Model the fold of this input.
Amino acid sequence: MSALRRLGPSSENTRSAILDLVRSGGTVSRIELAEISGLTPASITRIVKSLLDEGLLVETGFGDPTGGKRRSLLELNLRARYAVGISLDVARLTYVVADLGGTVVGQLISPGIGQAAPSVTIPRIADELRVLFRQLDLPTEAIVGVGVAGAGLDLGAGTAGWSATTDEWDSFSVQEALQQRIGLPVVRDNDAACAALGQYWAGRIPATQDFATVYMSKGFGMGMMVAGGVSRGASSNVGELGHMVLDLGGPPCWCGSRGCLEILAAPQAVVGRAMSVPGLAVELGLRGDEEHLREDFDAIARAAAGGREPALTLIEDSARIVATALLSVVNLLDLDLLYLAGPGFADAGAIYVRCIRADLARLARTRGVHAVTVELANPGVDAAAVGAAALALQYVLMPHARAGRTFGSGTPMALASP
Done:
């Protein structure tokens, strides 16, 4: 049964699924679309015509001769629409503008949220977006929407528990506040889900390939792509990898449990252990406080990547604990593809990949059936921001893949004009 048949009769869903097939295929013909989708050639012709008329697709030459009429080829009109992605982080704010293919055409980096309240941060975000648009000479009419990625639980009703920020963010509606200031529709999600979606979109991964993206910043999250959409769960909180319990008798975690992955292997745990190693703090210039957590962890990771002990041992210990958590994930979900993304993997990501690959190859329950591919995401550090832009693109262009998310207005966006 084709993916389109599972969607049901909605013409909007069918149309968006065809657009997704072109996205993942890169360059395809109408005949190939009919074969993949199971739709009739006449239906494909009608849908493709509407997408061409709206400027979302372009014809880009002809395929190789096959004895009959040469097939005309189709691909996304990459510059027909744009979307903005914003990654909210304690250490830095990352803004990207991406085209329809998920390619970044502009970027702006500014200081992070720190302990600032939303009443201070949201106006700054709006001002910095205007600066970015002016630098790119990009009219707001060309932008379909803004995606926002941040850490924390989804608490519903447009709010989120942003675990990396002040308590004021816990009951604050980022969507509504930002939308009022910039006049563009806004949608949000957690950083791990956005990172997975960005990999799916920019990597041209087909909807038939399920995978997970592990995101490490201050803590851990995991985004799962299933059948071309982000897996949500009962309360849109799938992927709380950081609070997988690995040791019932372990140290208490801030979430109320004990022995969670985050408390055992996240940057704070690594820095804490590093501070107890004689001479290491002085050697690497570690501060050991919350304010300098990102800088401290990055210094340890860079030293480990250069093969310096005992930093290498500290990072390898963290990587093996992460591998233990992912072993359970792979066994439970029967995954064959994992990506690692986020600032936590920026400097020592290769060490994490090596340790995780080794343990999964040795211990995964399905190792005799299929291998598990583990790769660093591209772009790794900015994956959440790129994914947030993809989130906005998907909500506008591919309603068949929506699940549990609306724009700040409370209703899905209509397709914007070019």
Remarks:
- Residues 304 and 315 are 7 Å apart (CA to CA).
- The first strand starts at residue 28 and ends at 29.
